[in-house]
C-alpha cells in the first residue's frame, strides 16, 4: 500500500518560500534602519563636538566672520539631523511593517504544518487500525481452523 501524500504540499512549500522572502525583506529593512540610526548618532555626535568647539572658540575670542561660519554650518547641520531623524523614523516604521508581514507569513506556514501533522497522524492511526483489524481477522481464521 503506497503512502498517501499531503494534498497541500504545494501550498505549504509556497508558504515556506513566502516566509523566506519575508525574512529577507525584514533583514534588509532592519539593516537599513540600523545603518541610518548609526549615521544619525554620528551626526549628532559631530554636532555636539561642533557646539563644544564653538564654545571654546567663544572663550578665546572669535571674529564675526568665524561666528557667521559657525552659525551657518550649525544651522545646516541641525536641518540635516532633523531630516535624518525623520528618515530613521520612517525606516523604523518600514522595519516594523516588515516584521508584522514576516510574523503573518510564519503563522500561515505554522497553521499548514500543524494541519499536515494532524493529517499524517490521522493517516498513520488509520493504517494502524486497519493492521490491527487484519491481524485480528487472521487470528480469528487461525483459531477457527484449529477447532475443526
TrEMBL record:
UniProt xrefs under Pfam families = FliJ (PF02050)
* GO cellular component labels: bacterial-type flagellum; plasma membrane
Q: Where in the cell is it found?
A: Cell membrane
Specify the protein name.
Answer: Flagellar FliJ protein
Originating organism: Geotalea uraniireducens (strain Rf4)
What does the sequence similarity comment in the record state about its family?
A: Belongs to the FliJ family.
- InterPro entries (alphabetical): Flag_assembly_chemotaxis_eff (IPR053716), Flagell_FliJ (IPR012823)
**Protein keywords:** Bacterial flagellum biogenesis, Bacterial flagellum protein export, Cell membrane, Cell projection, Chemotaxis, Cilium, Flagellum, Membrane, Protein transport, Transport
According to its UniProt entry, the protein's GO biological process terms are: bacterial-type flagellum organization; bacterial-type flagellum-dependent cell motility; chemotaxis; protein transport
Lipid bilayer topology: Peripheral membrane protein
Q: Where is the signal peptide?
A: none
Query: What's the superkingdom here?
Result: Bacteria
**The keyword Membrane is annotated on this UniProt entry:** yes
